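USER: If only I could read backbone structure tokens as easily as an amino acid sequence. It would mean a lot if you studied the pair and described how this chain folds. Here is the record:
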Amino acid sequence: MSASADRSGGCQCGAVRYRASGELGYPHLCHCRMCQKAAGNYFLPLAGVLRADFTLTRGEPKWFSSSDLVRRGFCAECGTPLFYDIPEADFINITLGSLDDPQSVKPVAQSNMGTRMRWFHDLDALPVEPEPESSEREDAIASGNHQHPDHDTIQWPHGAAR
């Protein structure tokens, strides 16, 4: 298990929130094809937390059984992938990108390297887009942002009870 901390997280729209109050075990990047499809990405960062240390604090996820052994939890409102669950296990895996502070958990390993993108080693050589000279676009996005903030809220969206 990795360092213990009280961590909160949830989906992009705020309909589903959770708290992991114990250690996060085996933070890793999974490159399997199922995780790629579930995340809509090239890999899925995951870590396990004991069920006794895990609480849903708002809403309920929708579940999809991606195999006979595993189900995946996601927000039915916005589609954010949140959980990788083996129902008979004493832990549940959370997606590290759904944490309010994903920077706080550094992966310790990678799995299923046979389906990892062969060109990942080339990423650092890609050109980097320049930062905009004006913040107009960022200001426009911020003023119309519907994404839940990276912390717990009593209600969301503001002024409405879920």
